[in-house]
Structures are given as C-alpha cells and as structure tokens.
Amino acid sequence: QHPCHVSQKGSSPPEADVYVIPYYPCIGKFGRYKMEFGKSTAYAMKMFASLPTAKRFNGLDHFIVNQWYIDGGMHNPWPLMSYISHELQSYGFGVDPTFKQASVLAKLQNYITVPYVTSVHGNTTREPPPQPRSTISVFVGSIVSRESARALRLSLESYSRKHKDAVWISVSRSDAAPDTEKLYRASVFGFSPEGDSESARRTFSLIEAGVIPVIVCDYCIMPFEDILNWRDFAVFMNSSFIAQSDPIEFLKNISAASVKRMQDNLAVARHVLSYNDPIRPGDVIDSLVTAFRNHGCRIRRFKRWFVDHPVA
After folding, report:
1. Which of 147, 150, 250, 284 qualifies as a FRET site for 48, CA 20 to 30 Å off?
2. Which residues touch 200 (CB under 8 Å, ≥6 apart)?
3. How many Å is the maximal CA-CA distance in the chain?
4. If 0-12 CB within 10 Å is exposed, 13-18 middle and 19+ buried, where does residue 88 land?
5. Do β-strands 187-193 and 212-216 pair in parallel, antiparallel, or remain unpaired?
6. Of 5, 36, 1, which is closest to residue 303 (Cα–Cα)?
7. Cβ neighbours around 37 below 10 Å, total
8. 278 touches 122 (CB < 8 A)
9. What is the value of pTM for the model shown?
10. Could you say which DSSP state residue 216 is in?
C-alpha cells in the first residue's frame, strides 16, 4: 500500500503523524513554577526544540494546546507550529496588523478551534428538559472593563430594559450568582457579546441549555466551522447593527418556524460541541481526532522526503 495514503497504528513516537503539546502559559505566574510570562513561553519553546521530532517538519506536524491569540503564539520561534484553542470572538482580531502578513495567514489555516469547556458529561449527554420558553432573550454577566466591550454591553442592556419579556442581569465577580441555568431554560435566545477575553464561555453554556445563542462579534472564528454551519443554530450580529437597531425587536420578528428549525439544529450541534467521558462518536474529542487525521494525511505525502532530507 502506498505509504502516503495509509495511516497505521504504532507505538514509537517517531511513527506518529501529529504531535500534541499541552501548554498553559499562565501556570508560570503561580506557585513554585512562577516566572515571567515571556520567560515561560521561551522555556516551553526550548523544551520543544529538544524533542527528537521537532525538526522533522520544522513544527508543521506539531499542535500546541494554548490560547492562540493572547499568547502571541503567531510569533513563536517555530513558525509552522499550529495551535488548538478555543474560539476567537472579537478580541484584537482584525485590528492587529500582524494578521495582514501572508505568513501569518498561511499559518492560521492549520489552526484547530474547539469549544470552551463548560462541563464534561458522563455516559450520556444531558438533554435540556422540554418546557415552555417564555423569555425572548437572556443575559447574565458582568459589565466588563474593556471600553468597546463595555459600551456594547451597556447598549444591549438598554435595549433589554425596554422589553418585559427580556432578562438582563448584571453581576460583579463578587456577587452571588443567580440561578443561571433556570433562566436559560426559560429563554429562546441568549446574548453572547464580546468581553474582556478573546473567548466567550457563555456561548457554549447557552447551547448546552438549548438556548439559541446570539453571538455579537465583528470578527469571529468558531469551533468546527468545517463541520457545523453556525448560522443554522445561532444568530450573528455585529456592533454596528447594535448601534443602529433594536436587536430584541429583530429577534421577535424571526418566524416561529425559523426558531423551531434553529432549535432542532441546535440539538444536533450540541453533540458536536460537547465533551464526554468516555468519548462519544462525533463529539469534540472525536472531531478533534478527525482533524488530526486529515492534517496527518496532508503532511504524510511529504514524510518520506523529509526523512531522507531533514530540515537543516
């Protein structure tokens, strides 16, 4: 069989098509391993350079599990290394001139985006119990510190206060959390605007509760867009729309048939975006392995060449 097209099981690391490196830079800020942020990244890259497989493809066959933008990962010394990270929702993307560089765009095409972990299910994925949803929209969260995100949330709050069937609850980190799950279960739509970080865990909490997420972002990269059509089960709005139109009025004008269709699609998407123990066919980890397999197939075509002609 042609070795370029066949993936085989093996027990020796050099036989692998893809290598995964878990790395969380913030661990360098705490406890006995405390070090400066930049030093921790440099230390991790030095460790990577010592691996026997590091130079075979100059990092092309390695994925690092990390926060792909906030770490400045695109500037690491291994320009071909790809990242596995959570979604990107409007934080710096599109305004950083780095994104205009052809080398960066070429690098980004191999990145794998996975959903933020909200929970890990047992043998079966918990389905939201059927119940009437009398609330048109819901938001539970804080008024963040980043100026543009704060202004956006204040605008959404102002619109929500005008509608009796909309719920908007602002809390600080020190406040006692309300019964968020109960609020979600009673809502049709849920707002997930950008915040202080580059990701939004709220999006996936809404999906898990059977709420159609209203993702407010100007530039987004969502998980498994090659598998899921996000517009089948989510509503996307940008900041300019919020500035000019009442988003809740827009949601109320969506037909009941369209809402039902999105809710049905949401039930399918929920499985693809769920973490399970043990792993279930088609869930996050299974889809991640499929992405590895596809990436491995692409680079396997050049594997024999690089074995005979190592990168200098």
Report:
1. 284
2. 87, 89, 116, 192, 193, 194, 215
3. 70
4. buried
5. parallel
6. 5
7. 13
8. no
9. 0.83
10. E
